[in-house]
Amino acid sequence: MSIWAYIFSVLQAAIPAGTPLLYGTLGEVTAERSGVVNLGVEGMMIMGAVTAFGVAQATGNPWLAIAAAALVGGLFALIHAFASITLRVNQVVSGLALTMLGQGISGMIGKRFIGMPPRVQLKAVPIPGLSDLPVLGPLLFQHDVLVYIGLLMVPVLWFMFYRTRWGINLRSVGESPATADAMGVNVFQVRYLAVFFGGLMAGVGGAYLSIVYAPAWIEGMTAGIGWIVIALTIFAMWDPVRGLLGAYLFGSVRVLQYRLQALGISPPLLNMLPFILTILVLMFSAGEAMRKRLGAPAALMQPYTREER
Amino acid sequence: MNLLPRIRLEKRLDTPRWLSVVTPILSVVAALLVIAVLFGLLGVDPVDTYWRIFTGAFGSAYGLSETVTKAIPLMLAGVGLAVAFRARVYNIGAEGQLLIGAICATGVALFVPGIPDGLRLPAMFVAGALGGAVWALIPAVLKARLRIDEVLTSLMTVYIASELVNYLVYGPWKGPGEWGFPYTDKFPIAAQLPRLGATRIHYPTLILALLAAVLAYLLVQRTRWGFEIRVTGENPEAARYAGMNYLRTVMLVMALSGALAGMAGVGEVAGIHYRLRYPQGISPGYGFTAIIVAWLARLNPLGVILTSLLIGGLLVGGDAIQLKGLPSATVYVFNGMILLFVLSGDLFTRYRVRLEFPGRVAVPLARPEREEAA
Q1: Are A40 and A230 in contact (CB under 8 A)?
Q2: B328: distance to nearest CA of chain A, Å?
Q3: In B, which residues are within 8 Å of A234 by CB distance?
């Protein structure tokens, strides 16, 4: 195999591998844009994964499974929303609690699914016309539908963030909730919605794992993907387009992890990469001016209250 | 018309002492009730499960000894976190600092020749504490120099540490005598901590943990540094005006919590496993669970002694219910729910909660006789 063919095959595999990361990241970017960090991504994802697998087994309908996973992810996120937005508890610890809760509940629900052969599988759907393009066709347009939806979400979210009133409200709530409030934006509502959306997306990301990428239920099957999402959100500097690049980049790392093992390169060293890269990005983007330019929400992790303005 | 009451929070100026004792207890009770309902929904008998957890952890000499064994790392790491959180420095990387401590101890146990037998274990503890402190200083320095939030960086360092352990036990440190398992070779006798009788309680580490709790309490309550830690946590602006060195406080509490977590890691490899193994084998998330321990103790180092035993018992009870076919993950439900409720319960100590019904006067829920602090 020529070097180009090799790189091509890695990239082609990186897209499905990066898809759960993409969903999680787009959701977390939205939540953090509103000023709420949700470290519960791992928990929401695993709940999505177990829900999707369970519903798919029961109904044989993958779309119902994905919808249910999204809903469960969203409902789970509302726990964090209530704690961090209404009760103003520490966002970091509340998110951590959500992750533990998700790991626990999914483990209990999923016990009966262990070892079950999957009833449904999402097949690749080549897009007519586009899939015949040289190089790009097989790279981008011969995947399953969730890959396409994920890809499509990127420009949609970008447009929402930067070109709509909804996006202005979202970003202003994350930048300066007091100002947004004074302008008549319902800070609490925006934050609740953003966190809920984050949960929906994490749920779909989890569903992708259990019914598409590796159709099965394995306890703890998200295996740290939720934490990579947290890293990716910063890596992407809260931007959906950079989120896409990051997700596929970290997706390639996941693919390479298996392939480079054959060449004697230790997988653990590769697994460290996303986390080291994120710290490096944080270092290079440090400094108030740089953070502003790159779009870090100024009110991140700060609860908002009208009384203490 | 909106008939739902609106929740309004009013900041308390001071917290009555009884409230700060009662709140965590009620929070745990509330969490247990909600978990019972959840278990019921999942088709698990909650009464039977709770009974098994309780008797598993506290109902036999073996259970009790295991509870103490698991409380040791939780206590060490929890004490450090209580101090750090007190300064509002959110080190959530204790798990990684613990693993680095385990790595350093293993390095000293297996690969440093020429240490007299009597000094082998002390050297391992020193190395582990140093390693943990240095690992914790990565996020501390980044925060101090570049103002990067320590929450995310300390979290990232957990996964780096964990992969480092994997790298070592699958790679260069893999023991030739371990039949291909991802373990290092067994520690020599001089690098193994003594245990209490037939139990797994490695008592030197327990003594260190108790000592750490008392010393940390004295540090926070009785020393100038402790005063600075408390002021920094309660009012960073005031601390700055008073000429306190914020960056020094950050470095101090991060290094301290890292060192204690590192020592917890030393205890695990030198007292329980006698070798370095894959990360989940060394610690089933003690560093994260220690966050609950610290919070449950309301960030009081002495309280950590009690809460670490409680949560340690929960972990042991969690093992007991596995025998009945519940997955090991069940214990995370307890961890997560208790943490969530303790956090939320904390609210009642910091704020007065009022429910406002539309069209009616505000109904105070607590301490109505108090004057508004306007």
Answers
A1: no
A2: 8
A3: 152
Task: Using CB atoms within 10 Å of the CB of residue B327, give its burial: 0 to 12 exposed, 13 to 18 middle, 19+ buried.
Answer: buried
Q: Tokens 């205890």 belong to which residue?
A: B267
Chain B residues touching residue A287 (CB < 8 angstroms) = 146-147
pLDDT in tens, chain A (309 residues): 688 888 888 888 899 999 999 999 999 999 999 999 999 999 999 999 999 999 999 999 999 999 999 999 999 999 999 999 988 888 888 998 999 999 999 999 998 898 888 888 888 888 887 877 877 777 878 888 999 999 999 999 999 999 999 999 999 999 889 889 988 999 999 999 999 999 999 999 999 999 999 888 988 888 889 988 998 898 888 999 999 999 999 898 888 877 787 777 788 888 888 888 888 877 877 665 556 556 678 788 777 776 544
* Whole-structure pTM value: 0.87
Residues 6 or more apart whose Cβ sits within 8 Å of residue A265: none
Tokens of B323: 């025998």
> What secondary structure letter does DSSP report for B187?
P
ipTM: 0.86
Distance CA B81, CA B91 (A): 7
d(CA B267, CA B90) in angstroms, rounded, equals 24
Helix (H, G, I), strand (E, B) or coil at A22: helix
Measured between beta carbons, which residues in chain B are less than 8 angstroms from residue A41? Answer: none
Interatomic CA distance for residues A284 and A275, integer angstroms: 14
